[in-house]
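Re: weekly structure request thread

Next one in the queue (108 aa):
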Amino acid sequence: MASTTIQVRMDSALKQQVEAKLKSMGLNMSTAVNMLAHQIVKQNRIPFEIIADNNPPILDRLPKTVNADHMTDEELRLHLLEGFHEAANGKSRPADQVFAEMRAKYNI
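Done, posted below.
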């Protein structure tokens, strides 16, 4: 397979931080960029969420439904944290009450 060279302009401090993180993972910048390119092609999208600094707090951005099959460990941790905060703030109901409502609603 023929290869090509690309150039990317990046803040020097950011580059150093990224290289240090990648090194701790056993990767280098070239491998990481190639991994990103492969995932863009495979998933037909940027393979992560892009979040602006001025977005609302993370708990406000989380979806209201959760499918853990397609989550990273960090995403799952954030969903669990959201549930903890809701329970701590009285936004939960006993499981037997929820199940009773479901049985009545779906005749099960």
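The two ends are 58 Å apart (CA to CA). The chain has a mean pLDDT of 86.
Next request, please.
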